Amino acid sequence: MGEAQVVVVGSYVQDHAWLTDRFPQTGETRRALGFNSGPGGKGFNQAVVCARQGVATLFIGAIGDDHLGAIAQQFANKEKLPCRWQVRSDVPTAASSIVVDRTGSNLIVVNLGANEHLDPAFVSAQADAFAGARVLLLQLENNLDAVSAALDLGARHKLLRVLNPAPVHPDLDAALLARCDLITPNETEFALLLEHVTGERIAAATLAERGNAELHRLVRQLGVATVVITLGAQGCFVSHASGERRGDADAFYRLAPERVKAVDSTGAGDAFSGTLVAALVRLADRPFRDAVVHANRAAAMSTEIVGTAPAMPRFGDVIARFQTTSPAR
Question: Is the pTM of this model over 0.85?
Answer without folding.
Answer: yes
